[in-house]
Amino acid sequence: MAAATDGSNLSGMPRTIAAPTDLPPAAGATRSSLPTSQEPQLATAAKAVPDGSGWLSELKLDGYRLLVWIDSGRVRLVTRNGRDWTDRMPALAERFKGLKVDTALIDGELVALRPDGTPSFHDLQNSLTNGRDRSLYFYAFDILHLNGWDLRNCDLIDRKCVLEGIHKWSGYLRYTEHVDCDPELLLAEARRLKLEGIIVKRADAAYRGGRRPSWLKIKASGREDFIVLGWTPPGGSRRGIGGLALGFYDPVGRLHYAGVVGTGFSDRELLDYAVLGEAMASTPPTTLLSAGDRPDRTIRWIRPELIIEVSFSAWSGEGRVRHPVYLGLREDKIAAEVVMEVPDPTAERRAVTPVGPAGDRSLGASRWKGAVPPRHKRFSLGEAT
Questions:
Q1: Do 38 and 100 fall within a single domain?
Q2: Rounded distance, CA 80 to CA 83, Å?
Q3: Which residues are catalytic?
Q4: What is the pTM of this model?
């Protein structure tokens, strides 16, 4: 199981290098030019592994989803929401120029690895913030196009076979191994390694953009993405912010309050979020569902656009996260994607109109002297837009 994270070839056989050919690389491939755009396929959340055979399982790596275009030596790196990050990751782009292909479109995950080989989303965010993409790893798990052939209608198992054979995956460019045994075994391994969970995919499925039931994600730990609704002022000697107010949408589009996260931030992040909070100050949301006590009255409300990842031990009966820890800002998602089932649906939830100031700048970090940053300026956590 552990070999699934190190990019090695489980079969022990040498990998071959793909070259342009008149023969289709897999059954179902059709002649086609390299597509100029592609919506990534997304996994549907599931509470348990699926029954029956015909599923492939991969460890879910906690990172940024990237689609990689290669066209006659030119490389383009695009996030799941369509942002071109090629200039932001020059070292990664240069590595892909080493693939001996004419044209290709590859899907995968960009991650930072701790010394023990497990992914760290917080380290990934810090590396991108500080322009250190040389230390990041790309795990390729699918290929959609190769040398003039469209592979999206091919079976997944055949696409993965093609992908494994086009490069000697090692070092910072790795192939995502899969297992075809009982997914529960890989889920147990994910729990042992304290990973986010697993992705289970139909072996015979075509590649289709958007969220599809042929890909399922099963979480192994309490870890979710949340919308930042606002921030609380710091207490004592703490500078910047006290914490970030969390929210999410339910499947019918209602906004829910999920508590406040106040741990896991570096000193720099506390100050940066104070600046972002000032730049994005807004009136309180007109409708917000909450169970139990009303949201913290000290919250400075902001536009609900920032997405962060948070780990936590459990949900409380009031729909608040217990023992939350901040992991990092997600620049590859939008608020509309933060949708989850309501925890403990039997708990009474009421519509509340939050109160409190919408961004009292006197509580911001002193080094910025309360000035609202220019909207075009890039901060270490992202753009204040």
A1: yes
A2: 7
A3: 60
A4: 0.72
